[in-house]
Design brief:
The complex is a heterodimer of chains A (232) and B (81). By secondary structure, chain A is of the alpha/beta class. Chain A is 23% helix and 25% strand. Chain B has a single domain, classed as Mth169, Chain: A, CATH 3.30.1280.10. Classes of the chains: A alpha/beta (232), B alpha+beta (81).
């Protein structure tokens, strides 16, 4: 089993994800520079957070049009796992790996804080180690993280169970007050059509060890590892 | 033939524009009674194309493939020689 963690110029959560995969979860992971090609030796690809291309044009827009993204889209099309975190989620949405997009927060400022998320489905390669409806605690750190899509796409995503995480309060109530960035329907984690792609604004790698204040994010990586083991 | 192309990218009508809201708030604080402020990005590009129609088509392809995000943006292209 081998993970790829893709590095763009301006990625800054790449080593955190690599650390969690290798030192906390105990799986092999390579840092892959975006000018390299992906090949077909990886079971999962993580697009980490950061500020690729300085967030010029729109966050994630330029990285989404690099050749390695064509490799990642091909990897997803062949059933491989793809996880995009924060800037990685913006890149994934810009590349069409999921529907909808992440844009400027309702209050146009950078928000860095711990939030509560409600797990909307445990039926995916990324969330099987959670219970549906469970409340987890993971931090966010973004300025362009407000999820937007059209009403018909939202309706279809809900019907198809492609919403992974919603902002909620400590008790799990999805309220306007618990929505830090104005995301449509409090949504902050969305699955691709085949449930092997997840794009999320919160940072599970920053909440994968108790010493950091929460290990709730580790179970996301555990879910991916269990999915790959089942497939092998 | 060289053409000067101006591309305007704006949020779709009805789409929340948080930057515009913050700017309008600041203008109001300065005593300017503004309303309905919206932001947009303008790109000026020099293009080589056989005709103005070709220059426009190329600019529109740029919008479709990179400059605009179809989920949230509309775009407008003006071509001058």
């Amino acid at each position: 089993m081998r993970f790829a963690v893709v590095q763009f110029g301006g990625s800054n959560c790449d080593r955190d994800v690599h650390h969690v995969l290798e030192s906390v979860c105990g799986v092999d992971a390579d840092l892959v520079w975006y000018k390299e090609r992906l090949g077909n030796r990886y079971d999962a690809v993580v697009i980490p957070g950061g500020f690729s291309y300085g967030d010029y044009l729109r966050a994630g827009a330029i990285a989404a049009r690099t050749p390695i993204m064509a490799d990642i889209i091909g990897h997803a099309g062949a059933g491989g796992l793809v996880l995009g975190i924060c800037n990685g989620a913006q890149i994934g949405a810009e590349s069409g790996l999921v529907e909808g997009t992440f844009t400027m927060n309702r209050t146009p400022k950078f928000i860095c804080e711990w939030v509560h998320l409600r797990v909307e489905t445990a039926d995916s390669a990324f969330t099987s180690a959670y219970r549906q409806g469970e409340v987890i605690r993971i931090p966010i750190a973004h300025k362009e993280g407000r999820f937007v899509t059209t009403p018909d796409v939202l309706e279809r995503m809900e019907r198809e169970g492609r919403i992974a995480f919603k902002f909620c309060d400590e008790q799990g109530a999805v309220t306007a007050e618990s929505n830090p960035n104005g995301s449509l329907g409090n949504i902050t984690g969305i699955l691709g059509k085949e449930n092997n792609v997840l794009m999320m604004m919160p940072h599970p790698e920053r909440a994968s060890e108790d010493i950091l204040g929460s290990a709730d994010g580790k179970r996301l990586f555990d879910s991916m590892i269990a999915h790959i083991e089942r497939r092998e | 033939m060289k053409f000067e192309v101006q591309i305007t990218i704006a949020l779709k009508e009805g789409m929340l524009d948080p930057e515009a809201m913050a700017i309008q708030h600041a203008l109001n604080n300065l005593g300017f009674a503004t309303e309905g402020l919206r932001t947009a990005s303008i790109y000026r590009i020099t293009l080589d194309a056989p005709t103005p129609e070709d220059a426009r088509a190329t600019a529109m392809e740029m919008c479709e493939r990179l400059l605009a995000n179809p989920v949230i943006h509309d775009y407008h292209v003006e071509v001058a020689q």
